[in-house]
Amino acid sequence: MHWLLWVLLIDGSLGICAQFLRKVNYYRRFVHYILCAILASTVGILVSPVFWAIGKQASGNWVVARTFYYLSLVVLGIKVEIEGEEILHRAQPCVLVGNHQSVFDLIMLGRVFPKQTVMLAKKAVSYYPFVGWFMRLSADIFISRGSKQSASDMFKKASEELRSKNVSVWFFPEGTRGRFDDGPNLLPFKVGAFLLAYHAKVPVVPVVVMDIHNLYNKRRLWSSGGTLKIKILEPVPMADVREEDLKDIMNATRDRMLAELKKISPERIEN
To answer: What is the pTM of this model?
Structure first.
């Protein structure tokens, strides 16, 4: 019990310092963020046997997501507002594609992640302690990027798993975090999400998250509470699409998302 009191005392002291020192505030909030993630993942592991018993393994992702969001709302003071959330309910199963900005994207995922939705990740991630265990328990889909099979064959196999489990899949089509000093933008998209939707014959649902520069910026060591706005765009139907048209559809989707990103993002504050 004494160690908990010491932790609270140290955190309280750092909280006082954080009112005056931006660097202290940044790292204190980041530690709180990690603790929220660990607690939410632990909840997911504990409840996963229940979802396995009822055949709804993917719902473990939803429980972890919402647990993490409400912890972040209380601890970090970040609220998420969604426009077009009803689209998520009528488009499932689908492939969701969202812009990727920082590690804090997990807060956005925590609020928007639908039920019976999984993540698609490298197979190597399934062997990671704790994270990999939880993802296996939640029926997430793993692909072997190092295999000799073509990208189309790889995602065709993943689509068969998607259909058999009757779940939606979340993708970050940029492939990595996009950081832009001159304003909100998107990296070029990778075609994987669209290949998966093509083979599964399910729509692509674009999810646009506003520029988070004013709430979180790693380079400036800045982190604060506030409101994070999300816009769900109308689905892109894939049932009658030809494979040779996928790149054009991908680029058109990126253009739609970029236009909406600039529209919903607030003016950047530098100081």
So the answer is: 0.85
